[in-house]
Amino acid sequence: MHSRPDRLPSSCSNLVLPFPGFPSLHARAEQLARQREQLSAAREAVRLADVRYREGLVTYLDVLDTQRTALAAETQLVLTERTRLTDMVSLFKALGGGWVPSPIRNPA
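-> structure tokens emitted (108 positions)
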């Protein structure tokens, strides 16, 4: 019988669960999904604001405001993705991940 890939053998759970970043990886993935939806909605709002501006229904300030909102959503998405990747690297390192620190080389 095959075990589910998202389940760890009980012998491994003691190794992984004490790592503080492990439970947050799943939550961070869910957060990223929600932020991607927000970014998509913000980009659609920018498109609609641009159409309304070209039709003379809103001022350019409204277009700029929706662009600012979309940029803030994109920035937040990038920051969350960076945090998720940093958490993953920390988990890999905690599990032994095969990292061998390389010496810093002076380009001179």
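The chain is about 70% helix and 0% strand.
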